[in-house]
């Protein structure tokens, strides 16, 4: 992964975050930012737990939460 791959991410330290920390840090993000992280995750690590946390947050936002 290069720095340019991570340049547009809403969390600059994304790759170093644990799943628990990520879950807390994404609470303040909007739908577009969560979608960016989901896309990045699918094309780089595609870690099941991370995708689950991001997808869950995206669903919460879409439901008004």
UniProtKB/TrEMBL annotation:
It holds the Pfam family DUF8129. Residues 10-62 form the DUF8129 domain. InterPro entries: DUF8129. This is DUF8129 domain-containing protein. It comes from Streptomyces solincola.
